[in-house]
Amino acid sequence: MIDQKEFEKNVQEWSDICLNDERIDLESYDKYDVKRGLRDRNGNGVVAGLTKVSKILSSKTINGEKVPCEGELYYRGYNIYDLVNGVVKEERYGFEEIAYLLLFGELPDKKQLERFSQTLGYSRTLPTNFVRDVVMKAPSHDMMSTLARSILTLSAYDEKAGDISVPNVLRQSLMLISVMPMLAVYGYHAFNHYERGGSMYIHRPDEKLSTAENILRLLRPDMKYSKVEAHVLDLALILHMEHGGGNNSTFTTHVVTSSGTDTYSVVAAALASLKGPKHGGANIKVVEMMEDLRKEVHDWKDEEEIEEYLRKLLHKEAYDRKGLIYGMGHAVYSKSDPRAEIFKGFVKQLSEEKGRMEDFNLYSAIERLAPKVIGEERRIYKGVSANVDFYSGFVYSMLDIPNELFTPIFAIARIVGWSAHRIEELINMDKIIRPAYVSVMQEEEYNPLDLR
User: Fold this and answer.
1) Rounded to 5 degrees, what are φ and ψ at 22?
2) Residue 222: how many CA atoms within 13 Å on its side-chain side?
3) How far apart, in whole angstroms, are the C-alpha atoms of residue 189 and residue 197?
4) Residue 31 CB contacts under 8 Å (≥ 6 apart), including other chains
């Protein structure tokens, strides 16, 4: 038998073997024309399917030449700017309306929207004692893991959990869209109470309120919030609801759906993808980076000092030493991310209400200076601009949303897009997604055990 010390020694030794043996030289990817990350040098993704749910434009063809353009995002054929402006002008909450659009392919009229909103409100309920028996058991600081565990456990309460007919999957999707805020916020309160010694508040949602309003109601001890706060959170949810079929978590949704598995397993897999810092967890990295910047940069109005810090980031001399300026650049967009452009105006409005204009000005300075610094320090193949993650974490901090809930808020929105893509996959495809890998291993002669 071995002890813990011997176990750890074995693991370290075998880890070293993996690090030495498993590496594939980068030249092999060019040799076999394999796209790393399923993207080419210009960030163009390998086409893996067709979708009618959304569309992203980052370039246009002019006189036969592909040139970068200002980023555009469409939900079911509607420009995201038009959708947001329509909601803002009428001072409405838009999450439910846009969710209807993504799921069913058309904008609802007043009666359809009321019926859909009432359906979501009716579905905002969890099985008896679920919060006590599941959410409050073994609380974790990782809310995404808590969410995934809760959703997988919900399958045990569903007599038709494995039924993948479209009507049943839609029923499950509507239920999960409705209860995701409850699972996330309750999970946070359990962690905050049992692990931090804070007070625990388990408020019931209000069927008559919007999703954004209910999130703030569930989160806050007094259940109070301002209209500006709720509208900005609603906007954040709309901008995060969907982003093409090629983003990591949505592609995961398509891949896992294609295997024929159940809705709960698909959503849990998508959550596992979204929690990564290169995907949905990026906004937390932005906030942490900004906290480090505030400590290192003495004069927030000194652009030379800010630039010097940004260069230190790229040289792996600051923050997490990863060589990244978080919130800058995007896998698809080059000149601009339309979600960030839309967000910025409302961020300023909230900053004024919260007395955080000094922070807003600092974010604005970095948004302007970072592309310049990156262009001087790195060889880039396309433009660099702020992405939606750059401002979303700042917004959530102004809404007093704890860091642990930043990525779950993303999931609360994105589950709508996942649901639309899952249904699209079920309707149009009957073939498991199975890409190919080129093997670059060497064949070996087998030796008996006593001759090795």
Assistant:
1) -90, -5
2) 3
3) 10
4) none
Q: Determine whether 206 is an active site residue.
A: no
According to DSSP, residue 133 is labeled I
Question: How does DSSP assign 383-432, residue by residue?
Answer: ---B-HHHHHHHHHHHTT--GGGHHHHHHHHHHHHHHHHHHHHHHH--S-
What are the CA-CA distances from residue 49 to residues 52, 148, 251, 354 (Å)? 11, 26, 10, 44
- Which residues neighbour 409 within 8 Å (Cβ) at sequence distance 6 or greater? 184, 215, 233, 236, 237, 240, 396, 401
Query: What span, in angstroms and rounded, lies between the C-alpha atoms of 30 and 306?
Result: 38
User: Catalytic site residue 163?
Assistant: no
Mean pLDDT of 378-392: 81
Report the side by side order of strands in the sheet with 65-75: 54-62, 65-75, 78-79
Structure-block tokens of residue 379: 């060889």
pTM of the full structure: 0.93
Round to whole Å and give the CA distance between 360 and 395.
10
Q: What is d(CA 385, CA 387) in angstroms, rounded to the nearest whole number?
A: 6
Q: Give which of 84, 81, 77 is closest to 54, Cα–Cα.
A: 77
Mention every residue, 6+ apart, whose C-beta is less than 8 A from residue 259. 432
Find all residues with CB under 8 Å of 299, minimum gap 6, and list them: 305
Residues in the chain: 452
Contact 265, 432 (CB under 8 A): no
Catalytic residue among 262, 337, 359, 389: 389
Tell me the pLDDT tens digit for each residue of 254-275: 999 999 999 999 999 999 999 9
User: Torsion angle of alpha carbons 322, 328, 334, 336, nearest 10°?
Assistant: 170
Residue 67 has φ and ψ, to the nearest 5°, of -130, 145
Selecting among 330, 337, 359, 421, the annotated active-site residue is 330
Dig out the tokens for 63 from the structure: 């006189």
pLDDT digits (tens, 9 = 90+) for 9-58: 999 999 998 888 778 888 888 888 888 888 777 667 888 899 999 999 88
* 283 contacts: CB under 8 Å, gap ≥ 6: 327, 389, 392, 393, 396, 406, 407, 410
